[in-house]
Amino acid sequence: MTATSLAAPPPALSARRRWTVLAVCALSMFLVGVDTTIVNVGLPEIGRGLGVGTRGLEWIVDAYTVVLASLLIVSGALADRFGRRRVFQCGLVLFGIASLACALAPSPGLLVAARAVQGIGASMLSPVALAIVVNTMPDPRERARAIGIWASVFGLSMAAGPVIGGALIAAFGWRSVFWINAPVVVAALVLVAVFVPESRAARARRLDLPGQALLTAALFLSVGVLIEGPHIGWASPTALTGYTLIAVTASAFVRVELRRREPLMDLGLFRRPPFVTAVLGAMAVFVALNVSLMLTTFYLQHGRGWSPLAAGTATLPMALGAFLCAPWSGILVGRLGPRRPLLLAGGFITVGGLSLVNLGQDTNVLLLLLAYLLIGIGFGFANAPLTNIAVGGLPPSRAGVAGAITSTARQIGSAVGVAVAGALVTGVGPADLARASHTGWLLVGACGLFLFAAARTSQPATTAKA
Question: What's phi and psi for 351, nearest 5 deg?
Answer without folding.
Answer: -65, -40
